[in-house]
Design brief:
157 residues, alpha/beta, 6 helices, 45% helix
Length: 157
């Protein structure tokens, strides 16, 4: 992981406002990194970052990669980015009380984040700890996941 992190930001409908508030609080750190978002969340975050920058007379081009909406394949697109080493940190505010029609995609995304040993936070308090860690602003080399190595090196038949 390089000093500039590749951060994915995702939020379910009932959690979007909480993620927007978190982005408003952490916007200065976030704009120093590469951001990827799913669908509607990406549009909301881009609007929020522009507002924060205008209010503080900051001039910087905001470049957010926006994927499809989660239920329309965005979660799967994000999973592919994780598999390809294109995401370092996943901030995913998901609604634990609301059933989701794409629940299997959500579980698959969290499974991949764990399998590929990327940093991820699913709540505001965890996201606060991640972004405030001294490691967040430094180069960091995570350990290789033994499960992946074992799987790649398995003997067939």
């Amino acid at each position: 992981m390089k000093k500039i992190k590749k951060i994915a930001l995702v939020a379910h409908d009932n959690c979007k406002q909480e993620l927007i508030e978190w982005v408003e609080f952490n916007w200065r750190l976030l704009i120093q990194n590469d951001l990827t978002c799913t669908g509607t969340t990406g549009k909301l975050i881009e609007k929020t970052l522009k507002k924060c920058m205008e209010q503080n007379s900051e001039e910087k081009k905001i470049d957010i990669t926006k994927l499809k909406s989660g239920p329309l394949g965005g979660d799967q697109q994000l999973g592919a980015l994780i598999c390809n080493g294109e995401i370092d940190v996943l901030i995913f505010f998901w609604d634990a009380l609301q059933p989701q029609p794409h629940d299997v995609d959500i579980k698959a995304l969290l499974r991949l984040a764990t399998l590929y040993n990327i940093v991820y936070a699913c709540s505001r308090s965890t996201a606060d700890f991640v972004i405030s860690s001294p490691l967040f602003k430094e180069n960091y080399k995570p350990t290789i996941n033994e499960q992946i190595d074992d799987y790649k090196n398995r003997k067939l038949g």
